[in-house]
Specification:
The protein is 55% helix and 0% strand. The chain has 105 residues and is mainly α. It has a single domain, classed as Orthogonal Bundle (Cytochrome Bc1 Complex, Chain D, domain 2), CATH 1.10.760. Helix 1 packs across helix 3 and helix 2 runs antiparallel to helix 3. It binds heme C (HEC). Heme C binds next to helix 1.
Length: 105
């Protein structure tokens, strides 16, 4: 019985880790495909569009829980250069996982 419980706990952790990884990869893919021609989406580079905040610094400017909701409702920043996006709940979650993973200076 004890072994079974331990196995279940191990499995639970393994699937949680895998799902977070999924989110991270999906988030990276979304950011690269949809946002990278304006925002810096990696750890070091500058934004191609100088006034688009690098994603690693975004957390200082926007609340991520709020951003996750805004992505699903259709994200519009107050700038004409910024197109409108509508994300599914899963995509929005993945992008936020990615944003949290790359935060830095
Ligand atoms: C065509 C260029 C372009 C693309 C593509 C783009 N953005 Fe932006 N984004 C901008 C610009 C420019 C700003 C700055 C707007 C301002 O400060 O007025 C901005 C601002 C933002 C902000 C507000 C940040 C802040 O500093 O207040 C968020 C959040 C954001 N973008 C997320 C995204 C996401 C997520 C994607 C991809 C799904 C994306 N953007 C794609 C140009 C773009």
């Amino acid at each position: 019985m004890r072994i079974l419980v331990q196995a279940c706990i191990a499995l639970l952790f393994a699937t949680t880790a895998a799902r977070t990884e999924d989110g991270l990869e999906k988030g990276r893919e979304l950011a690269t495909r949809m946002c990278a021609h304006c925002h810096a989406v990696g750890k070091w580079e500058r934004s191609p569009l100088t006034n688009a905040t690098p994603f690693r610094q975004m957390e200082a400017r926007v609340d991520y829980d709020d951003l996750q909701r805004r992505l699903q409702d259709g994200l519009v920043a107050g700038h004409p250069a910024m197109p409108m996006f509508v994300f599914t709940a899963e995509e929005a979650r993945a992008l936020i996982v990615y944003l949290r993973a790359i935060r830095g200076p």
